[in-house]
Each structure stands twice: as C-alpha cells, then as structure tokens.
Amino acid sequence: MIYKKAFLTIMVIMVFVVFSFTTALAFPADTPAEDVTDSSDHPLISRFPGSYIRFYESKDYDEFTLPFSELETAEFEDEYEEFADKDLRLEGKITQHFYVVPERHSSLEIFRNYEQALKENNFEILVQKDADVDEWFSRPLYEQVNFQDASETSFEGLDPDKQSGRYLMAKLSRAEGDVHISIFTARHGYYGGSWPDGQPAVFQVVVEETELDTGLIDMESVMQDIESKGKAAIYGIHFEVDNDEIEDESVPTIEKIAELLKENPDLELNVVGHTDSTGNLDYNIDLSERRAESLVEFLVNNHNIDKDRLSSFGVGPLAPQATNETEEGREQNRRVELVKP
C-alpha cells in the first residue's frame, strides 16, 4: 500500500512537471487569432490560406527602403552598412502586412506560393534569397515597422529564424505607376509554435508609386471649417527650426490662403501660431507668435492683403490637437490656425 501511494505521488509530480514545461512553451496567451482592427488584404495580393494579420499599416504617401543588396552574409553590422547604399528607397502609397501562418506550413511552402503568384501576375523578380536570410539583411525591414504590441517593437522581439528566412522583391510596371512588393518569410520565435523553431510568418510591404498630391489645402473645406467651427487648421506652412523664417516650400499654401481672402473680401481672421510641448513654455509661446506675425507680413507684403483684416497671436502648446507623447501627435500640434474673430 505504501509503495502504491508513493508511485501515485511520483506520477502526480511528473504530470505536473510535464504540464508546467509544455505550458511555458505554449502559444502566447495574448496573441490574437483574428485580424487586427481596420485591416484588410492588399487588392493586388491575397494572404496565404489560414493566416491572420498581426500588424497592418497603410499610408497614402510615405517612403520605404527595400533591401536590394547582393550581400549574402554579414557577421558584423559595419559589413551591412558597406552595402546599404545599394538598397532601394521608394516613395508612394505604402501598405505593410505582418501575417502569422498556421504552424503546419513551412517557410519554404509559403515562400514558393508567393513567388509563383507574383510571376503568374506579371511581376518581375528583382532580388531573391531562397534560404538563410541573415539578420543584417532582414533587420532593416523590421526597423521601419512600428508594431502595435510593445513586445514586438524590435527585431530582437520578433526573433526571426535565420535558416528558415527567405526574401524576394518584385516589380510590376504600370502606366499609372510601378508597384514593388517585398516578401520576407521565416519562423518567428515570438509566436511560439513547435520549440525551438517558432511560428511561420510573412512580412509583406507593397509600395505603389504615385504622384504626391500637391493640392495642399482645399480652400472650400477650409472655408466650411471657418464658418461651421469658427477656425481651420493649416499644416502646409513650415518654418526654419527655432526661427520665424518661412521656408520656400510653404509658398503654395500661403498663396491658397491669399486666394481665400481675396475671394471673401469681408473675411477677417486671427492668425494663431501653435507648437508642440517640446522645450520651454514661454519660449514656445513667443516663437508661435513671431511665426504668426511672419505669416501676416507675408500675406500683406506679397499678396496685397489689407493688414487691418489680419491679427496675429501665438499660444505655443496650450491648445493641442493631439497628445504630445507621440511624434504623430506632435506633428498635428505644430500648425497655424485661421480663426474667425
């Protein structure tokens, strides 16, 4: 009887140990099993069957650098830097997807499916690495991504496996603008899967070359904001750093404001300068006021706008549009507002 109890006790302990070990290696509990909010596949390329979108971002116009180097391996970072100027920097509409794929599929199977689909749709393969994509080749891809999960904000956090790493970049020539698609497949340690390989995943970048919309501001919508909200935010006016000198790239936007004032001869405006919260409060208030004054003077001296119709003020960071905790928020806060008195 004593032996029987001892045997049962040992069995319970062994089951507990095995359960604890397998639990530690299980799929992360917070990993979603469905697409992130407001994400979708790109219309030019569908996802590998059964995968879901872990990260998604689309911007109407931005830049992205795609690896184009012939470098096969690099043991040190300075070796990669030597070849960095061979990479391809593109501008246009940027759409990024990070797909997590069911574990039963190999990186090779996924990669060959993408390769075949691109060829069948008239894409030209510009660069391809079928195996052993080392971290100095794939690292630049991840350094350009702002993953939403804090634990995935670095290349090390994602932990792509070198041996399963495969990469290709393809191009489709179109009259309306070329399209470049970058595909990197590998097993990623962050996502669990069979120890120690991790879960297969695909990082996909689509760059559609488009002309930059230089309309800058729609005066009709600006006037609607002034009439309905009493103010309109203008983001096309840029100044030199820590200075009230207006940069040349601001001229088209200022010309639009001048047109608005000429088309509405009874319109009077307060021109209000805004900054983000970086730096000293008093300094930012003074700087924003000087910048507003510079804009008023530019309109008066270069476009013959009656000075009595315009008044300048500066409030620095005291009326933010968004949080100052992020760069995106700070960009929204650096603006000029046209306010109806």
TrEMBL record:
Signal peptide extent: 1-26
Query: What keywords appear on the UniProt entry?
Result: Cell outer membrane, Membrane, Signal
- Location of the OmpA-like domain: 226-341
Q: Which PROSITE patterns match?
A: OMPA_1, OMPA_2
Q: Where is this region: Disordered?
A: 314-341
Bias (Basic and acidic residues) occurs at: 327-341
Subcellular localization, as worded in the UniProt entry = Cell outer membrane
Does the keyword section mention Membrane?
yes
Q: What are the GO cellular component annotations?
A: cell outer membrane
What's the chief localization of this chain?
membrane
Pfam families for the chain: OmpA
| PANTHER family reported in the protein's UniProt record | LIPOPROTEIN YIAD-RELATED, STATOR ELEMENT OF FLAGELLAR MOTOR COMPLEX
Name of the protein: Outer membrane protein OmpA
